[in-house]
Specification:
Elements: H1 2-14, H2 17-29, H3 34-54, H4 60-83, E1 91-96, H5 104-115, E2 119-122, H6 129-139, E3 143-147, H7 156-166, E4 174-178, H8 184-190, E5 194-196, H9 199-211
Parallel strand pairs: 1-2, 1-3, 3-4, 4-5
């Protein structure tokens, strides 16, 4: 069984989605619990991908291939995980702030979060403060992740943080910001709970935020 899981993990890292489907079916047929396949193969594989991306051993196309392979496995596992009532690592709302239509960074964060076992509610781009907060409340998500690529739009992050406070949700919903022009100093200035310099760091910060809720 360890050999099957090891092979599956390697194939995910290599981005071989066809082989991943075969190995996932083999693991299921071998009687390995879906949660074990997730915890011992999929999540460790994507953690390696995130770490290698962080230190520039691999690049964005490699991450996207690995994510596609992971999704191939999840297509087979998700119904079984639901059947077994296996909860996700957490639930996160992500989006690019109002007035900004750039989404590469946001998409990468969403991909790595999914690879880490999180349920991601991706609102897309040009997201208003109300949509961010309403989505988090409706989904019961304890974290809102915001991205911006333009200095002229990053101020919209403050509006989301302020709205979370105005609605009395600061103790329930945490906010994290990121994007090329966004700095740790800016995050502190607007009162965000966290800032991430890159996508792998965002996953780490979000994991910490959820653990603290």
């Amino acid at each position: 069984m360890r050999e099957i899981l090891s092979t599956l993990s390697t194939e995910i890292q290599n981005g071989n989605d066809a082989a991943v489907r075969e190995s996932t079916r083999a693991a299921i047929d071998a009687g390995i619990a879906p949660a074990e396949i997730l915890d011992q193969a999929l999540l460790p594989a994507m953690a390696v991908v995130g770490d290698r991306f962080r230190v520039h051993e691999i690049f964005l196309p490699d991450v996207l291939l690995a994510a596609r392979a992971m999704h191939a496995a999840m297509a087979l596992l998700k119904p079984l995980l639901v059947r077994d009532d296996v909860p996700p690592s957490g639930r996160v709302v992500v989006g690019t702030v109002v007035g900004d239509v750039h989404d590469i960074g946001k998409n990468l964060v969403a991909t790595l979060l999914q690879g880490a076992g999180f349920e991601v509610i991706d609102l897309g781009t040009d997201v208003s403060p109300d949509r961010f907060v309403d989505a988090a409340v409706d989904a019961g998500a304890p974290v809102i992740g915001m991205s911006a690529l333009l200095t002229t739009t990053m101020i919209g992050m403050r509006d989301v943080v302020d709205l979370v406070r105005e609605r009395g949700l600061a103790g329930t919903i945490a906010t994290i910001v990121g994007g090329a022009p966004v700095t740790a100093e800016f995050a502190r200035e607007i009162g965000a709970d966290a800032w991430a310099a890159d996508a792998p760091s965002a996953v780490d910060r979000i994991r910490t935020l959820i653990a603290g809720r």
